[in-house]
Amino acid sequence: MMTLLNDYFKIDSRTADHDETLFRITLLPEYRAYAGHFPGNPVSPGVCNIQMIRECAQLLTGKRLFLGYISQCRLSAVITPQTTPQLQLRMQLSVEADGIYGVRATVGDGTVTCIDFKGELTSVK
Predict the structure, then answer these.
(1) Separation between Cα atoms, residue 8 and residue 30, nearest integer Å
(2) Which residues make Cβ contacts (< 8 Å) with residue 87, sequence separation at least 6?
(3) Residue 51 contacts residue 72 (beta carbons within 8 Å)
(4) Is the entire prediction scored with pTM above 0.70?
(5) What is the pLDDT at residue 24?
(6) Which of 6, 39, 89, 115 would you label with 50, given CA atoms 20 to 30 Å apart?
(7) Residue 65: what pLDDT?
(8) Which strands sit side by side in the sheet containing 9-17, from one edge to the other?
(9) pLDDT at residue 2, rounded to an integer
(10) Among candidates 41, 13, 7, which has minimal Cα distance to 27?
């Protein structure tokens, strides 16, 4: 399974407070997708940001997770390695059923929320 950790993004720190975990993330501008998305004006692909959320959830659970469904995904601001290289990913993860995790996440620069995500991730049995 493809991972984007240390290719598209790196995690600078991870802190937990009650039911929320904060990941401080740096986007890596040399990621290969930026060459075509878009040449001379790189924009972070939305699918890469959703994958980043999934991979951070995997770190919290210690399990391989797959996207079950997305009930909400608002992309409200553009993420680029030039204008928003430092991101904060705030995540709440809950066990919904055996092997099913509810995830609520926001991604932003500390001032502006760029992504508001809610969905379910499923672990491999």
Answers:
(1) 8
(2) 9, 24, 25, 26, 27, 79, 107, 108, 109, 114
(3) no
(4) yes
(5) 98
(6) 39
(7) 96
(8) 9-17, 20-27, 86-97, 100-108, 113-123, 65-75
(9) 78
(10) 7
43 is written with which tokens? Answer: 């924009």
Burial class (CB in 10 A: 0-12, 13-18, 19+), 14: middle
What six digits make up the tokens of 81? 């390695």
The model's pLDDT over 57-115, given as tens digits with 9 standing for 90+, comes to: 999 999 999 999 999 999 999 999 999 999 999 999 999 888 999 999 999 999 999 99
Structure-token pair, residue 71? 């009930």
Q: What is the mean pLDDT of residues 40-46?
A: 94
* Residue 125, pLDDT above cutoff 80: no
